[in-house]
Amino acid sequence: MELDTFWAKFVAQFPEYKDAERPEAWQFGVEADELADLVVRGIKTATALGYKLYELEGEALPQPGLLNIILNSKDEPVCVTQNTDLIVKPFDEVTAEFAYLEGEGDRSLDYWRRVHWAFFSEEYARYGLAFSESELVVGEVFECLYAI
Fold first, then answer.
1. Contact 86, 64 (CB under 8 A)
2. Which of 102, 104, 95, 108 is nearest to 45 (CA)?
3. pLDDT at position 29, please?
4. Among 12, 16, 77, 95, which is most exposed with the fewest C-beta within 10 angstroms?
5. Cβ pair 82, 75 in contact under 8 A
6. How many Cβ atoms sit within 10 Å of the Cβ of residue 110?
C-alpha cells in the first residue's frame, strides 16, 4: 500500500490526526519484517539506537507523542506507532525491563546486550568509531496505534 493511502486510512480511524503532517516512515535496521510483526502483535514496544548516531546523522532525539510509520523490508507501511517514553542511559545501565519491552529473542537482558552490542558496534564502525559499554543509548518506548 502506498504511504499516502495508508496515512489516509489511519486518519480516517483516528480523526484527531487529520491536520497532522504524515510522520516519518522507516524500517528496523535488522530483520525488518520480523520486528515489524512483533510490533503489530504487541510484543515489541520499544527500540534503541546509540545516542551518537542521532548526533552524527543530524537527527533530533525522538520525543514522547511522536508518531512513526513502520515499514516492512519492501518499504510497505505496516503500522503506526506513538512514542510514550524516552530513556537515555549508558549501555551498561539499560534495564531488564527495557530489554523485555524490546520484545526480541528470549526478551532477557543478556540477549538484548549481546545483539545490541553487535548492532551498535557495527553502526558505530561505519563512522570510524568504537562502541563501548559507557556509550549512551536512546530507548524509545511506544504503542502500536494502528496496523493493517
1. yes
2. 102
3. 81
4. 16
5. no
6. 11
**pLDDT surpasses 90 at 1:** no
Long-range contacts, 23-26 (Cβ 8 Å, 24+): 23/66, 23/67, 23/68, 23/69, 23/80, 24/68, 24/69, 25/68, 25/69, 25/70, 25/71, 25/75, 25/77, 26/68, 26/69, 26/70, 26/71
Predicted confidence (pLDDT) per residue in 123-135, tens digit: 999 999 999 999 9
Kindly report the pTM of this predicted structure. 0.92
Torsion sign across C-alpha atoms 40, 41, 46, 50: negative
CB contact set of 3 (below 8 Å; sequence gap of 6+): 22, 25, 69, 77
* 22-58 pLDDT tens trace: 999 999 988 999 999 999 999 999 999 999 999 999 9
60 burial level (CB within 10 Å; 0-12, 13-18, 19+): exposed
According to DSSP, the residues that pair with 139 across neighbouring strands are 48, 87
CA distance 140 to 142: 6
The residue type of 51 is Y
For residue 83, the SS3 value is: strand
